[in-house]
């Protein structure tokens, strides 16, 4: 493990704890980011706490309420007086086990304010505020104070925006969780929405509202309460309680990332910095990778998930896919549907029963695992719970132990269903605790996790780097059996869903016209754009989603063989939310850079400077572009492949077809 470079300087106390509470009345309780641009100011007026945020002297968030409402007697918290306050600074550089950037700087200034109620029961509450160069964060710490069954019924946190703006959002409390297309509208039209919520203010500032270190708490959605005022809304339990505690709690960090350009939201690592350091000492079994799967064929109707004449996860089909892995040079294979319990109605909300140890009659796990090992391929396991968490918890140890015995180190876990156990929201406190429980259990069995139908990412991967990726948005599969994702979808989610963390989008379909499967379906992109997604949409595990026979002999497959999944650095060169994005990343294990550029329904010509390359070095630019004259609706499979020598002093013109993209490997010579 890279030795953390840490310079932590604790400043003198702003105010001594021994002072009388009245001494704080006129105090300037504020904290400024290291670069001086972002300022958080705390105020206590008539016993009620509030905060505001300025950037470069202009208001971003106007005075906004803080606090909670509890259940039962003494439900309101407050009014308060200030009993102590202190400030500190912190500066470190730490290394990710894997990631989109190898070394991350964690630099902030902090203000802590401890409050106490002026009347009985005189409970205390501490607020921590952190100001970063790329945003602000705050959280609540409520110590144990004698009430062992304290229940939170409401969080009073507000975000009163100083001005209107354009928001990109998906609505909260819908049956399919986060799996909806993004809506673009003024902030003043919002209702209840999920986070990350991305906003471009009328003055041109880019903001992302989210949360970090979500542990034993309900996740937060945002509700517009008046014009441009947003309020925290905690996802409830089935009984209406929001958060059940033992009498103490530490809330997640409430976060606002702030940027002058949309691409700077993507290269902000504030969410990770607000999480605890890695707790897994031996991470040698955690391997970023690319993988094939018995997956796309089931979504397009070539195979079935359940036992049938066309069952996808048969022993015979699995062995053939292992042969493809070996031939194509891809060393991981996902097998879905190998176990007992799959039926044509498996996805219905019916507490469906799966076995996590018994294979179907036409599948033998040991035979398949042994054959894979002999051929240098690692199997990725699959656990579909159908949201029947009662059934999964009964079998989880046996299921994970079986994978461990078979030499399997990776598992995809699905929670298909509108509610966990048909009663609880996936993103309420029940779900938050369930997903964390499974993640910890997987670490015990040295299994990495890829959650589908997940709780949203809030930076857990820093603490548990076996948390590799998750779904949590509309992925590739929607192109197989629905109206599909429009070209603008992949130009939007880098600035919304993916600000939270890696997504298992499952790109790489080169047969974008879907010649096999459901009639009239296609993936609404060009094939070159599918290549670009491997650079634009970050994940340490990337599926090569197409049928393996569509890769065999395809000249554009070379890029999929070459492109890494673990990076030293990431830069966004050009971006406009919902329209276009161009991202470059440097390979962690070579001197090569990779570029992905994509557009929405509009064709574009972009001039890209190559000044990110090493000065004085020569590179071969291996270019995979849209063929001349194509669109995502016409001859979309055609890829123009070329190469040329370039240096950091050069620029390239990228010609993106409507719904298209470009992928480039810059190989250092």
Protein model, in words:
This protein is of the alpha+beta class and 669 residues long. The protein folds into three domains: 269 residues, Distorted Sandwich (Beta-galactosidase, Chain A, domain 5); 184 residues, Aldolase class I (TIM Barrel, Alpha-Beta Barrel), CATH 3.20.20.70; 190 residues, Aldolase class I (TIM Barrel). It contains twelve helices and 37 strands. The strands form six sheets. Strands 1, 7, 8, 9, 10, 13, 14, 16, 17, 21 and 22 form an eleven-stranded antiparallel sheet that branches. Strands 2-3-4-5-12-19-18-15 form an eight-stranded antiparallel sheet, with no helix packed on it. Strands 28-27-26-25-24-23-29 form a seven-stranded parallel sheet. A hairpin with a 2-residue loop joins β3 and β4. α4 packs parallel to α5. It is globular and about 75 Å long. The two termini are 30 Å apart. The N terminus is likely disordered.
Brief digest:
By secondary structure, the chain is of the alpha+beta class. It folds into three domains: 5-273, Beta-galactosidase, Chain A, domain 5; 289-472, TIM Barrel; 474-539 and 546-669, Alpha-Beta Barrel (TIM Barrel).
CATH architecture of the largest domain: Distorted Sandwich
Total domain units: 3
Assembly annotation: single chain
User: What overall geometry do the principal axes of the alpha carbons give?
Assistant: globular
CATH hierarchy, class of the largest domain: Mainly Beta
Distance between the termini: 30 Å
Q: What name is given to the CATH topology of the largest domain?
A: Beta-galactosidase, Chain A, domain 5
Low-confidence stretches at least 5 residues in length (pLDDT < 50)? 1-26
User: Which percent range fits the helix content?
Assistant: 10-25%
Number of strand elements: 37
What is the overall number of helices? Answer: 12
CA gyration radius, whole angstroms: 25 Å
Beta content: 35-45%
Largest sheet: 11 strands, antiparallel
Structural class: alpha+beta
Please, what is the average pLDDT? 95
């Amino acid at each position: 493990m890279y030795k953390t470079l840490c310079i932590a300087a604790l400043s003198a106390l702003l105010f001594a704890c021994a002072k009388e509470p009245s001494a704080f009345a006129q105090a300037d309780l504020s904290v400024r980011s290291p670069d001086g641009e972002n300022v958080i100011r705390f105020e206590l007026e008539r016993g009620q706490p509030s905060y505001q945020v300025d950037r470069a002297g202009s208001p971003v968030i106007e005075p906004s309420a803080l606090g909670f409402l509890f259940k039962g007697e003494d439900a309101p918290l407050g009014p308060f007086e200030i009993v102590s306050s202190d400030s500190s600074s912190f500066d470190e550089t730490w290394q990710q086990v894997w990631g989109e950037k190898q070394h991350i700087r964690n630099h902030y200034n902090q203000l802590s304010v401890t409050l106490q109620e002026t009347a009985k029961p005189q409970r205390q509450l501490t607020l921590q505020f952190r100001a970063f160069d790329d945003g602000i964060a705050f959280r609540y710490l409520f110590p144990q104070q004698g009430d062992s069954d304290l229940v939170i019924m409401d969080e009073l946190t507000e975000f009163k925006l100083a001005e209107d703006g354009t928001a990109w959002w998906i609505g909260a409390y819908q049956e399919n969780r986060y799996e909806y297309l993004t809506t673009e509208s003024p902030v003043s039209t919002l209702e209840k929405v999920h986070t990350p919520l991305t906003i471009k203010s009328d003055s041109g500032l880019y903001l992302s509202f989210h949360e970090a270190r979500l542990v034993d708490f309900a996740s937060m959605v945002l509700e517009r309460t008046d014009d441009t005022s947003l309020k925290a809304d905690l996802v409830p339990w089935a009984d209406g309680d929001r958060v059940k505690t033992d009498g103490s709690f530490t809330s997640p960090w409430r976060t606002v990332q702030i940027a002058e350009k949309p691409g700077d939201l993507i290269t902000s690592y504030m969410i990770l910095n607000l999480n605890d350091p890695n707790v897994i000492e031996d991470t040698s079994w955690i391997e970023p990778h690319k993988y094939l799967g018995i997956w796309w064929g089931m979504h397009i109707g070539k195979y079935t998930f359940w036992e049938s004449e066309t069952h996808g996860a048969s022993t015979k089909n699995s062995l053939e896919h292992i042969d493809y892995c070996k031939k194509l040079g891809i060393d991981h294979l996902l097998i879905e549907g190998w176990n007992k319990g799959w039926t044509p109605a498996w996805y219905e909300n019916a507490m469906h029963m799966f076995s996590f140890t018994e294979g179907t009659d036409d599948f033998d796990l040991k035979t398949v695992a042994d054959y894979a090992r002999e051929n240098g391929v690692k199997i990725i396991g699959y656990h579909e719970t159908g949201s029947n968490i009662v059934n999964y918890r009964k079998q989880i140890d046996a299921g994970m132990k079986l994978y461990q015995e078979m030499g399997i180190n990776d598992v995809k876990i699905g929670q298909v269903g509108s509610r966990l156990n048909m009663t609880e929201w996936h993103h309420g406190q029940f779900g938050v605790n369930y997903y964390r429980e499974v993640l910890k259990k997987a670490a015990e069995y040295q299994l990495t996790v890829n959650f589908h139908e997940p709780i949203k990412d809030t930076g857990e991967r820093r603490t548990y780097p076996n948390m590799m990726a998750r779904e949590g948005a509309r992925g590739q599969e929607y192109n197989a059996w629905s109206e599909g994702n429009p070209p603008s979808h992949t130009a939007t989610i880098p600035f919304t869903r993916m600000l939270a963390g890696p997504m298992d989008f499952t790109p790489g379909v080169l047969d974008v016209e879907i010649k096999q499967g459901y009639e009239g379906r296609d993936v609404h992109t060009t094939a070159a754009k599918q290549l670009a997604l491997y650079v634009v949409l970050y994940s340490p595990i990337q599926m090569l989603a197409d049928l393996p026979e569509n890769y065999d002999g395809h000249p554009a497959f070379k890029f999929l063989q070459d492109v890494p999944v673990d990076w030293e650095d990431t830069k966004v060169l050009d971006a406009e939310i919902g329209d276009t994005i161009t991202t470059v990343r440097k390979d962690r294990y070579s001197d090569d850079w990779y570029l992905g550029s994509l557009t929405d329904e509009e064709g574009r010509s972009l001039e890209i400077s190559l000044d990110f390359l090493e000065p004085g070095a020569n590179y071969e630019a291996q270019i995979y572009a849209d063929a001349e004259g194509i669109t995502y609706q016409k001859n979309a499979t055609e890829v123009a492949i070329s190469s040329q020598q370039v240096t950091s002093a050069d620029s390239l013109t990228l010609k993106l077809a409507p719904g298209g993209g470009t992928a480039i490997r810059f190989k250092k010579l």
